[in-house]
Design a protein that fits this description.
- This protein is mainly α.
- Helices cover about 55% and strands about 0% of the residues.
- Helix 2 packs antiparallel against helix 3.
- The chain starts with 12 loop residues before the first helix and ends in a 10-residue tail after the last helix.
- The mean pLDDT is about 95.
């Protein structure tokens, strides 16, 4: 039996899979493909974190998310120190998530420039009127 996988995997997995008796058909990605695959992997790992049902499972999935973030940062020549500095700056400017604030909706009068942000993203922010 052969199964289609079509995703980025960790470096040592092909050898581990072969040790388990599997035939593995992998290839090395070029730079643009690698960055695209990392972005897909980030979404995949975030979804797995979302679906985690125990603290131990969540810990493993968050570790996977962080590994992808490290790789994506390196692919763009960014250091984790740069990312952490930006995180802290955004936290200072906009706050964190400590207060657990949930925004159910926003309402904007016609012509308000801030409404353009929401109007430009109808899939993310559908109109309720």
């Amino acid at each position: 039996m052969r199964f289609r996988v079509q995703k980025l995997i960790r470096d040592r997995l092909p050898a581990m899979m072969r040790a388990d008796g599997l035939a593995v058909f992998e290839r090395r990605l070029g730079e643009a493909e690698f960055v695209a695959a990392l972005k897909e992997k980030l979404v995949e790992e975030a979804q797995e974190a979302r679906e985690a049902t125990s603290p131990a499972e969540l810990t493993g999935e968050l570790a996977d998310v962080l590994e992808v973030i490290h790789a994506l940062a390196a692919a763009h020549g960014l250091s984790m120190a740069e990312i952490e500095a930006r995180r802290l700056a955004k936290r200072t400017e906009r706050g964190g998530f400590d207060d657990r604030v949930f925004n159910a909706a926003v309402e904007a009068p016609d012509g308000l420039p801030a409404a353009d942000y929401y109007l430009a993203r109808p899939q993310q922010y559908p109109r309720e009127d």
